[in-house]
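Encode chain A's predicted structure.
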Amino acid sequence: MWTARQIWEAGRQALAAKEAASGEAPAVIAAELAGAPALSDSFDASSFEFAAQPYRIHFRNGASGEYDGAALAVAFPFDPAQVASVEPIGE
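Encoded structure for chain A:
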């Protein structure tokens, strides 16, 4: 199984090869790469201390959902680059 990092690197290499073949990157691809979040801007789930309570996770695409903190503390199933914010839900 491929990791997210390996897929991301393969995509970058494919874009670089396509750019080298055509001379320059199309404006759409260049704009998408310029607007892509840097890896350092992504959410660090390992440093976030999830408690046994519900959390609302907001994603960069505008979607959000409620998830159990105890399960998130064991395994964070989302791409950290797509997480915009994590907020505990008050009881």
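Residues 1-36 form one domain.
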